[in-house]
Amino acid sequence: MNNVVVETRKLTKVYRDFWGRQKKVALRALNLQIMRGEIFGLLGPNGSGKTTTIKLLLGLLFPTEGDALVFDQPAAEVKKNERIGYLPEESYLYRFLNAEETLDFYGRLFKLDPALRRKRAQDLIDVVGLSADKKRVLKEYSKGMRQRIGLAQALINDPELVILDEPTSGLDPLGTRWMKDLIVELRDRGKTIIMCSHRLEDVQDICDRVAILYEGELQELNSVKVLLEDVQRLELRASGVQLDDRLRRDLEEVIARHGGKVEFVGHPTTSLEDLFLRIVAQSKAHPGRRYLPGQEPLRTGDGVGLPVADPSTHVKK
Amino acid sequence: MFAAGLELERDPLQWVDMPLALKSWVQHAGLVAAFGLTIYCLAHVIKGSFLSRWLPTEDRMTPGNAVAGKLSGMGRVIAVLECLSLASYLLIGGWALFFVLGRDDEPAIRAADAVSQAAPLFASAGDLFFFLGGLFAITGVALPILMNLSRLRLGRIVALARLSLKEAFRKRVLWAFSIMAVIFLFAGWFVPYKPEDQVRNYVRIIYWALSPLFLLVACWLGAFSIPTDVKNQSIHTIVTKPVERFEIVLGRFFGYGILLTVGLAVLAAIGLLYVVRGVRVESAQESMTARMPIFADYLEFEPGFVRPDGTRDRSKQESVGREWNYRSYIGGPGPHSPPQWAIWAFDSLPTYYPSAPVYFEFTFDIFRLTKGTEDRGVFTTFTFVDGSYSMPKIKGVREEVLNARTKMLERTAAQADEMRKKGISEAEIQSWRAEELERIQSELISQFKYYDVPHQEVVDYHTLTLGGENKDQVGKQLALLFSKLAEQRLAEQQPRAQSGERRPILKVLVSVDAESAAQKLGVAKRDLYVLAAEGPFWANFFKGIFGMWCTVMLILGIAIAASTYLSGIISFLVTMFLLGMGFFKDYIQEIASGAIGGPMDSLVRLVTRRQTSNPLDASPTTSLINTVDDIYRVFMKGFLNIIPDVDRFDLHLYVANGFDISWMPVLLLDNLLPLLAYLVPCGVLAYYLMEFREVANPT
Fold first, then answer.
1. CA distance A239 to chain B (A)
2. How many domains does chain A have?
């Protein structure tokens, strides 16, 4: 089996007006390969060609020059779409359908067996957490809910390649974490994911490789670890010690002996996302707690600055 | 004011017309296909990567590849077909140049004549090249579609059709049909009518209300469906599934088609109830039926219309100045005017008549030169003769019949006297006399193949049966005449008519009696017919709705085809424009044929205040004007081929006047096949426009 799922060769897209005059070069001679089973991120500022690349891969646009191959077939080949799932940036679904009807409709386009189609639709509705709202029309959904049902329709055919355009757009931190976990789970199941996002922290968290585009040209292409690793510096994490002057001096001495210089010694910080999720989890576990001004932030046993429930502050419901 | 007869400007298509119709379709559709194919091939060579998007670079038809001969199998076939098509069109040009500048002995182009079946399908070599060019082009355009037909899946089309239906329901499109309730409730208040026109009136209300409603809805749904999907980008989620682009088009068409069909059927059923409620007797007799007529094959006049050059045109008689010259008018005999006849000729007679009476019905128009007597019609004489009789012979036979009848009547009178002398009762004598008269009549018919029905009163706006209260008796005599004529034709065993020669089996002559000489009788070919049978009104009503359905489907197809490339509002306007032009197709045809002047000619006449009947002076300027107008007419003729013939699908006249809409000539040949002839090119256009469209391109 060919491990290259997506390949572009000098892929170029030039937008022209009705008279054929060049308006914008959206993509210039893009060469890249996306391997099976990886999460591939497409990064770049607005107008860099990320969405154009995705649309070329999906056959929504036609290349001006070069080739786009998906599963060794030209991107415009309809048959290859049987193995692809696509979540657009905005949820371009039919707002007069409800969740069940939406998945049923898209399932019919894949020639799924009716029983399988129904089961898969129901499972996906449960996975994306819309069981309680499956009978409501999409017009009544919030942005986050539409994003979830959009993901569900992208997965209705259990695709080998999933293309996600801004998958966490419009999602709250909980939804974002859920989406990222799901993407990782899909990768672990052997699927290939192409992710296009402005949210760099999301890409950093889950992508295996990234491509960075700027004004239609590929500026960088490598694994996240290699790209972000700062080989000029050293980071050391330790536990079971307290930071004091003696420890600081000892560390400086050791580093100086090896010809280096200590730039910073201190306690690491967690991400705001993790903090938020933990507060939410804590609130669920202990409902009724509320913040009071001037109160010292309570800490958990692991030393992370997380307010601990003060019984005197509980509000009885 | 409604006329009672079936006023059709042209005959429905027959099977004999099919070869010519097909040839014409191939020529005109092929011309459009050739234009498209040429653009496709040129663009392929210039911008191969755009149009060969599904091929890897090395297989695309770039200039280099084309020169090196590296074309795919399909590419080679299309290239060959394009070359053949162009060659055929160039041959037309060559032929035209050769015959315009050189020889004059090419046979004149003759219009196909339904009577003379030996008319050639191709009138000239140019006609043949035109056909071949179109055929090759159509093949080149259709081949990729046919090759890809196997990729279409009914399940996906059905899914998309269901989506369209759901969308229409959820967006409350059906509410538009509720406007018909207003029509049903209040229309009758505002339309006055005579008692005999009641059903006609109701039928027209239903048709004229349903037709624009459904046409507008069809146009709206078709024009905005795909552009809305493109604008909302919901089409992205479909195109990125394993869905052929053409399936999207078909799904929309069938989805909305089903919606409109069901809506039309339901409203038509309600409309039928509206029509049949409280119908008056006079109106029921006129229109609440479905007459199955057998029309004459042609109508001519004696002595005919005298042209300015002194020759006679026997296809028409007098005009009384009505704007629509559908009918010609005959008058009664006068001291300064010869007798005038309208003569209907039947080339064949149905074979199932020998035992059943034959009923003739007619609806003539009356044009009064004087007021005449109130509530009194125009008196006419109907004469039925052997079709082979010429006018002089008819006059001679009439004399003989008169003489023979007189002698027979004298004998009968003498026998009656003898019977009285023998003491036989008067009632018995009268009964015997009636039988004898009938026998005399039958004998005269058998001997002379001649039968006349004098003094028939014709009134306006009514369909009348020949014989009136004695229609059964007249019907029996006519049946006898028909059977005698059939026997005679069988016995003659004449060879089939040569090209251009007519051999009617029956002629029906109508003349105005002397007592009504001051009035004119307007007649047309379909004003007189044999009533073969009658069908149920309700079935005919729905057949008429089928014609409306054809128009609705046509508009839906055009709108969807336009919407594959144009925006919603532009598609809507284009479709409505074509529909509007379709209603004026006859007028545009008149312009294109040169019957009325072109724009330059009209401009000159406006400026110089010259009458249309006054030809322009021969000069180089006039030649230039005529040339410009000829070029204009060429474009108008081309434009004519794009305009749908919507009048063809308007069958309400049949229903309103109580005439059956036949399955074969009218519904199948004259409605369904032309509908397909329009929809297939629309489908081909939609296929290519969708296939090559970048749905995500904002420009």
1. 50
2. 2
